[in-house]
Design brief:
The complex is a heterodimer. By secondary structure, chain A is of the alpha+beta class. Helices cover 15% and strands 22% of the residues of chain A. In chain A, strands 12-11-14-7-5-17 form a six-stranded mixed sheet, with no helix packed on it. Chain A has a five-stranded mixed sheet with strand order 1-4-18-2-3. In chain A, strands 10-9-15-6-16 form a five-stranded mixed sheet. Chain A is rod-shaped, with a radius of gyration of 33 Å. Chain B is α+β, with helices and mostly antiparallel strands. Chain B has one domain (40-187). Helix content of chain B is 32%, strand content 19%. Chain B has a four-stranded antiparallel sheet with strand order 2-1-4-3. Chain B is elongated. The termini of chain B are far apart. The chains are: A alpha+beta, B alpha+beta. At the A-B interface, helix 1, helix 2, strand 2, strand 4 and strand 18 of A face helix 1 and helix 2 of B.
């Protein structure tokens, strides 16, 4: 102000105007300074999606059993995909890889368990959401969507894979896509109508009325086979199908079946009658054999008490004992007593040891299907022999390709 | 700077104003991190996808023989590279995986259809030096990279004399070796 006139001096006005103009210019600068920080999504959503994708695709989860496939030590915890719901708290981390040495190769059993929302809590707002505590490891409540689908076909007879957990994608989200290979379970068929016939007794000494399935760990876990291709029966369920049992029946009419000679109990006790001597089986030819028991034998051939693992049994297309339950081990002593005309399907659960280790890369395990008729009845079937579950006899499905997507918001 | 009459000296006032402006600018600038938008995220995603595709293509889907080095156990990628089957390589890379229209994705990589791919292979020559060739691209317009792209590399183990003589460079060493496949992806 100039004197008492209240008038501003010109030079002050000039300076102040320059200042204001410059200030306005700088104020206009500021937003452009921050452009680099602007995002359409949250600052760490992509990072969390990436991290989650890595955990799922490259990690086997925790617990994962022994790091080396085929080996088990008593301190190894059961792999997470085999845990019952009662032991869900044992699961620390969810990963889908077969082993740490097989990134991008996923186990179909882990996939099925991971996407089983009746096992894991998938409720978005639930404080016990299992995926947040075992996969995202964050106190922040991320929204998520994880989807897996196959690109190349799954194994013959298996449905296409299209699995998803979480919520629909919102407008802004972090994202990662991973391409994977999917390892599926194995199975084997013992066709009893094959030539040459391997599974029928031709002398009285051979008649033991039992078919054994040999699971040889040293064959299955051959170290020259890369882990991605090893048949890992410790962690994978498998299926054994026995077909055409009718060809093994102790048929009293040789003309009906050239492979089935006639055998009487008296033949077998060494009374001097050859196996092929005419003899009626209780006056009529048997039309079925009775599956009395399923036994497990350890590496030394000693019978293991009880069932080593759970099994589902299907006899001639009918699930026994009913559609939901595995074979009940309780009637072992009394016998199963299922009449089999032709086919038996045995779905065997993974052989991860329930207690004592009886199967691993250094031990073999036999499963015996026992048809022994109680004395003095003659045998209904002349079945015998051993089927080796190996890479030649079992069906090992090709790896299928697939795509895993992780969305985080 | 100010007279007894509270009047500003012009030059000093201007200088002080400039100093204040400069200070303001420096303060604001020092707290900001310059990032090139979201491009690094997209690059990371594309790089991961490319790496995964090469890994999947280089894994045999079955084991035909218990010996992994058996020639029957070659992966698709090894066969494609050994026979310089560029058409099959680019078709598998792009159509089967990167932009497969039959695989319904929840999110599509931005401009998937615009992503261009080329590939080159590095190998050991008879003289022990490194040789390289471009994987033949059936689309002739894509033989050069016009700008910055995402680069993905993958080692391919090959255990036998690669392919028919006419399909690979004549100076490639005839023994087991590791080939380096380099794939460059960019947005057209």
């Amino acid at each position: 102000m100039k004197g008492k006139s209240g008038q501003l001096p010109v030079d002050f006005l000039v300076g102040f105007t320059i200042f204001i103009l410059s200030f306005i210019m700088v104020a206009n600068f500021v937003p452009s300074l921050l452009v680099g920080l602007q995002r359409t999504t949250g600052i760490d959503y992509d990072a969390v999606a990436y991290r989650t994708g890595v955990v799922l695709v490259e990690d086997p989860g925790e617990p994962a059993g022994n790091r080396i496939l085929g080996e088990v030590s008593p301190t190894d915890k059961m792999p997470w995909e085999l845990q019952d719901v009662a032991f869900k708290s044992e699961i620390d981390r969810l990963g889908l890889a077969i082993s740490p040495d097989t990134p991008n190769v996923l186990s179909i059993n882990k996939i099925n368990k991971f996407f089983d929302t009746s096992f894991f809590d998938d409720q978005f707002s639930s404080p016990t959401n299992d995926y947040r505590t075992r996969l995202f490891f964050s106190s922040y409540q991320y929204g998520y969507n994880i989807t897996l689908q196959n690109i190349s076909p799954m194994k013959p007879g298996a449905p296409a894979l299209s699995m998803s957990i979480g919520q629909p994608y919102p407008a802004g989200y972090g994202y990662i896509r991973r391409y994977v290979l999917i390892r599926q379970n194995t199975n084997a068929t013992v066709n009893l109508n094959q030539t040459p016939v391997e599974y029928i007794a031709t002398t009285p000494a051979q008649v033991n009325q039992q078919l054994r399935i040999r699971l040889d760990g040293s064959v299955l876990y051959d170290p020259t086979i890369p882990p991605a291709y090893q048949v890992d029966l410790l962690r994978e369920p498998f299926t054994i199908q026995v077909t055409n049992l009718s060809y093994m029946l102790n048929n009293s009419d040789p003309g009906n079946n050239t492979y089935s000679p006639i055998a009487c109990r008296s033949n077998l006790t060494g009374l001097g009658m050859p196996l092929s001597s005419p003899c009626e089986w209780n006056g009529a030819a048997p039309t079925y054999a009775t599956l009395r028991n399923i036994y497990f034998y350890d590496d030394t051939g000693t019978q293991i008490a009880g069932y080593y693992t759970k099994m589902n049994l299907t006899v001639d297309g009918v699930r026994e004992p009913d559609a939901n339950d595995p074979v009940d081990p309780s009637p072992l002593n009394g016998g199963l007593g299922y009449q089999v005309t032709n086919n038996i399907t045995l779905d065997v659960s993974p052989l991860w040891p329930p207690g004592t280790i009886e199967f691993d890369a250094f031990r073999s395990l036999d499963i015996g299907l026992d048809f022994t008729e109680p004395s003095p009845s003659p045998p209904r079937t002349l079945i015998t022999g051993e089927f080796l579950y190996d890479y030649n006899n079992a069906t090992v499905p090709d790896l299928s390709t697939g795509m895993l997507e992780v969305g985080i918001w | 700077m100010v007279k007894d009459g509270a009047q500003l000296y012009t030059m000093e006032g201007i200088a002080a104003g400039l100093i204040m402006l400069l200070t303001t600018y420096l303060v604001l600038g020092s707290t900001s991190v310059y990032t090139p938008g979201d491009t690094h995220i997209t690059d990371m995603q594309l790089e991961q996808v490319g790496s995964d595709i090469l890994r999947v293509m280089d894994t045999p889907v079955r084991l035909n023989n218990t010996l992994i080095d058996n020639s029957l156990n070659r992966s698709d990628l090894e066969q494609m590279v050994n026979t310089t089957n560029g058409g099959r390589f680019f078709s598998t890379f792009t159509n089967t995986y990167l932009c497969n229209p039959e695989v319904v994705a929840n999110a599509v990589l931005s401009g998937c259809g615009d992503i261009q791919v080329n590939a080159s292979v590095w190998y050991l020559t008879n003289s022990g030096s490194l040789g390289t060739y471009m994987v033949p691209n059936p689309n002739p317009g894509l033989s050069s990279v016009p700008g910055p792209g995402v680069r993905v590399t993958h080692w391919i183990h090959t255990n036998y004399k690669p392919g028919p003589a006419a399909s690979v460079p004549g100076d490639m060493k005839n023994e087991p070796q590791e080939l380096l496949l380099e794939v460059v992806m960019w947005k057209a």
